[in-house]
From TrEMBL:
DNA ligase that catalyzes the formation of phosphodiester linkages between 5'-phosphoryl and 3'-hydroxyl groups in double-stranded DNA using NAD as a coenzyme and as the energy source for the reaction. It is essential for DNA replication and repair of damaged DNA. Gene3D superfamilies: 5' to 3' exonuclease, C-terminal subdomain, 6.20.10.30, BRCT domain, DNA ligase/mRNA capping enzyme, Helix hairpin bin, Nucleic acid-binding proteins. HAMAP family: DNA_ligase_A. InterPro entries: BRCT_dom (IPR001357), BRCT_dom_sf (IPR036420), DisA/LigA_HHH (IPR041663), DNA_ligase (IPR001679), DNA_ligase_AS (IPR018239), DNA_ligase_CS (IPR033136), DNAligase_adenylation (IPR013839), DNAligase_N (IPR013840). This is DNA ligase. NAD(+) binds at D33, F34, E35, F36, D37, S82, L83, E113, R136, E172, K287, K311. Keywords: DNA damage, DNA repair, DNA replication, Ligase, Magnesium, Manganese, Metal-binding, NAD, Zinc. Its cofactor is Mg(2+); Mn(2+). It is an enzyme of class 6 (ligase).
Length: 683
């Protein structure tokens, strides 16, 4: 008996979710990664052919792909309050006295949890399915980020077993330390500014417009609070165990403490042990365990009276600055680096710290030979916070910022208003040339698999390539058996590496496949300064072809929505350099995509929105948000992201923010439902 597409989709969804749970929650595997990927690919193809049968808990949500230009504002059913903070155990004693006085008894206990350094999130489940995810925001209301949260693999999309009909779970979205480290290593190779800490990075990632990029960031989440009318637990501990039984990702680092002395023991236990965890922590959350006691103690205007946060002091150390070296990124940006006498800090040995730019060196008045204060705290990247001037040698000399490139000797330049110095020798400076090739082949650009930084270095070393365009001249014979030196940066040990026949074939096939990568990715891959992925997409959509962009004036580039003068100047400068024009012509000849594929939109005999400004908000049944915006533009309208006095129409979908709706009503903006919009354009 044949199975219908709907049944196939349902069966594959259930099966893949089962394997994902085993892998991410139980650390088990019943099938190989290859089998999982093949089944996931089959599901993606079925959902593309029968989108009406795609389920809310489909594992394809995990890989992202949804584009969200505007995040709806959602009001929390219960306020997401912040906690009072303290660094003092004396303050905890005072807190305990207030609890005792408020309850009129000594018969109470505490529940302690680590305070994870991330972004507070609220998850709403209805009928066992994740229906909405909202950031904390200002505590009263936050941004709906459901599509992005669905990419977090440890958050269940559908629950099994017993669960309340409707309930809310709260927790902390975070970026694991190893993911953050790898992300910064990639940014360093690409000559991009390093990200400051995992918390800010997690926060920025949650608000990204492209959920597929969010998925690539590998966020995680710990849950620690359960709310709902049907929740009948009598203690916070019972709620935590209920979350665990429903297979939510709960950190096993909690403890019930019968007295303040046990709370202090918990604090002391985790002060150093917390550094072994995969996530950054900055303290302890202490809660009165009984929910009846919590209700009795109540709240102040901003914080609960039954909970407090104890924060660990930022770990600091003093060590000697042995030298200042300078690194060159792929864009030519120069980054000064403090070479330190090794010192143990927050569980790791710190040898280096970024000094960012000349302004920071001047602000710190830092000199070689100084003893400096280094902090890590909640930040993975060590930071120099000051200089111990009392230990400064009498003959110390003021630091003079390097004026020539450390790699090629070219005099450095610094544009007015910018903090960084740059090496202008883009085509002759080895780190820049190799960095641009590494950026070009990266996943968000040309996505050329089987080519890594070491192989790229080997291809340069052996003279097989001298730039991006040479990649497309490589043959199997060029690569098969190629030997090159690989020097370990830490030990200086040199090993000989070689490319085997299978690897050579994979590289050639990946290069050939990259010729089908869309124009916006090619444009991003060119590595034009200030042109990130989003800017590349805007430019590609506006100009349609590389030749149109190449011939555009600065004024024409600035005319593109959200493109500023700095970006426009960089784009025009890029196309004024003969070597860059030669590169583009060679890539054209190799067969790369140099024009935007036109998407098909329905043909209408009306320009009903001619000269009108339209705002689109909410979720729609018959349209993707971007599809709807393109349709409005094809009907003569201008799409705006915010309501103002000049807005003519608001097309209101489901779950749109009440604030935006109220503003439209107050301004007298004409509001159209999805049905009314469809009827209008089909008349």
């Amino acid at each position: 008996m044949s199975t219908s597409p709907q049944e196939k989709i349902a069966n594959l969804t259930k099966e893949l979710n089962h394997h994902s749970y085993l892998y991410y929650q139980e650390n088990k595997s019943e099938i190989s990664d290859f089998e999982f990927d093949q089944k996931l690919k089959q599901l993606e193809e079925l959902e593309a052919a029968y989108p009406e049968f795609k389920l809310e808990d489909s594992p394809t949500h995990r890989v992202g792909g949804t584009i969200t230009k505007n995040f709806n504002t959602v009001y929390h059913k219960s306020r997401m309050l912040s906690l009072g903070n303290t660094y003092s155990k004396d303050d905890l004693i005072e807190f305990d006295k207030r609890v005792m006085k408020g309850l009129g008894t000594e018969d109470y206990e505490y529940f302690c949890e680590l305070k994870f350094d991330g972004v507070a999130i609220s998850l709403l489940y209805e009928q066992g399915v994740l229906s909405q995810a909202v950031t904390r925001g200002d505590g009263e209301k936050g941004d709906e980020v459901t599509s992005n949260v669905k990419t977090i693999r440890t958050i269940p999309l559908r629950l099994n077993g017993d669960y309340p009909e409707t309930f809310e779970v709260r927790g902390e979205v975070f970026m694991p330390k190893k993911v953050f480290k790898a992300l910064n290593e990639e940014r360093a190779k690409n000559g991009e500014a390093l990200l400051a800490n995992p918390r800010n990075t997690a926060s920025g990632t949650l608000k990204m417009q492209d959920s597929s990029v969010v998925a690539s960031r590998k966020l995680d989440c710990y849950l620690y609070s359960l709310l709902g009318d049907a929740i009948t637990t009598s203690t916070h501990e019972e709620s935590i165990h209920l979350l665990e039984r429903m297979n939510f990702n709960v950190s096993p680092t909690y403890a019930r403490c019968k007295s303040l002395e046990e709370v202090f023991e918990y604090i002391n236990t985790w002060e150093q042990k917390r550094h072994e965890l995969p996530v950054e922590t900055d303290g302890i959350v202490i809660k009165v365990n009984s929910t009846a006691h919590q209700e009795e103690l109540g709240f102040t205007a901003k914080t609960p009276r039954w909970a407090i946060s104890y924060k660990y002091k930022s770990e600091a150390a003093e060590t000697r600055l042995n030298n200042i070296t300078y690194q060159v990124g792929r864009t030519g940006a120069i980054t000064p680096v403090a070479e330190l006498e090794p010192v143990l800090l927050a569980g790791t040995t710190v040898k280096r710290a970024s000094l960012h730019n000349a302004n920071e060196i001047e602000r710190l008045d830092i000199r070689i030979g100084d003893y400096v204060f280094v902090e890590k705290g909640g930040e993975i990247i060590p930071k120099i916070t000051g200089v111990n001037h009392d230990r400064r040698a009498a003959d110390s000399k003021e630091t003079i910022y390097q004026n020539s490139c450390p790699e090629c000797g070219t005099p450095l330049v610094r544009k007015e208003g910018e903090a960084n110095h740059y090496c202008p020798n883009a085509d002759g400076c080895p780190p820049q040339v190799m960095g641009r090739v590494e950026h070009f082949i990266s996943r968000n650009a040309m996505d050329i698999a089987h080519l890594g930084p070491k192989t790229i270095e080997g291809l340069f070393q052996t003279g097989k390539i001298s730039g991006i365009a040479d990649l497309y001249s490589l043959t199997f014979e060029d690569l098969n058996g190629l030997k090159f030196e690989d020097k370990d940066e830490l030990t200086g040990e040199v090993k000989i590496r070689s490319i085997k026949d299978k690897s050579a074939q994979n590289i050639v096939e990946s290069l050939e496949a990259s010729k089908q990568i869309p124009f916006e990715s090619v444009l991003f891959g060119l590595g034009i300064r200030y042109v990130g992925r989003t800017v590349a997409e805007k430019l590609a959509e506006h100009f349609k072809t590389i030749d149109n962009l190449r011939n555009a004036s600065m004024e024409e580039v600035i005319a593109v929505h959200e493109i500023g003068e700095r970006i426009a100047e960089s784009v025009v400068n890029f196309f004024s350099i003969p070597e860059n024009i030669e590169l583009i012509e060679r890539l054209k000849a190799a067969g790369l995509q140099m024009r935007m594929e036109e998407t098909q939109t329905p043909e209408y005999q009306t320009q009903i929105f001619q000269g009108k400004t339209v705002v689109v908000s909410g979720v729609f049944e018959s349209f993707e948000r971007e599809e709807l915006k393109k349709l409005i533009k094809s009907l003569g309208g201008k799409v705006s992201s915010s309501i103002s006095g000049s807005t003519d129409f608001l097309i209101a979908g489901a779950n749109m923010g009440p604030a935006k709706l109220e503003k439209a009503q107050n301004l007298g903006t004409q509001i159209l439902s999805e049905k009314e919009f469809s009827e209008m354009i089909n008349q």
